[in-house]
Amino acid sequence: xxxxxxxxxxxxxxxxxxxxxxxxxxxxxxxxxxxxxxxxxxxxxxxxxxxxxxxxxxxxxxxxxxxxxxxxxxxxxxxxxxxxxxxxxxxxxxxxxxxxxxxxxxxxxxxxxxxxxxxxxxxxxxxxxxxxxxxxxxxxxxxxxxxxxxxxxxxxxxxxxxxxxxxxxxxxxxxxxxxxxxxxxxxxxxxxxxxxxxxxxxxxxxxxxxxxxxxxxxxxxxxxxxxxxxxxxxxxxxxxx
Length: 241
Fold this sequence. Notes:
Layout: H1 3-32, H2 39-69, H3 73-76, H4 84-107, H5 114-125, H6 130-161, H7 166-180, H8 187-204, H9 208-230
Helix pairs in contact: 1-2, 1-6, 2-6, 4-8, 4-9, 6-7, 6-9, 7-8, 8-9
């Protein structure tokens, strides 16, 4: 078996293992979480469980990277190599992805998919007080981008890139990341976002920039959603990546 094939199979196995782990944690949480909790308590428990799960995933991923590539967190996120130019480009990319998301939400009439509509409706019911909103901002704008970029660009894309072209590595990363966000109505958003994130990581080999793009996009999406919610306007489908 060639090194290229081994790398692809290893990445697929790793992604499958992460998905199974997340599914099991979600199942255990659903079974053990007490009924009748207040919105604030439920949001806080969800946040703590997600934080612990993300820390475990990141620690395991970093251990694999250290063993396979002698990389650690600070060699992935190079704070001393940050430049204004690429930070500004990252902000621009986040705005572009947000505008694409806005157009998709407001101008394209997607067919209803019940399971995902139920998830969006549940999120809508969990954003009625300030504590829940703060928890959502921290979770989606800070924790999720750091965790997901370490997994996708830091591990999956960089591992694939060892033996594949930029386009091939980017496309496989897109397919895998799409499987973590199963709503098919998000595929265009994820595809464009993945191109921009892989491009800026390819240019600088610094996870700081993809994390900025990812986090700022989620922040803009959350802010847009909360503003519409507070104005009692019809809220768009809440999609973050």
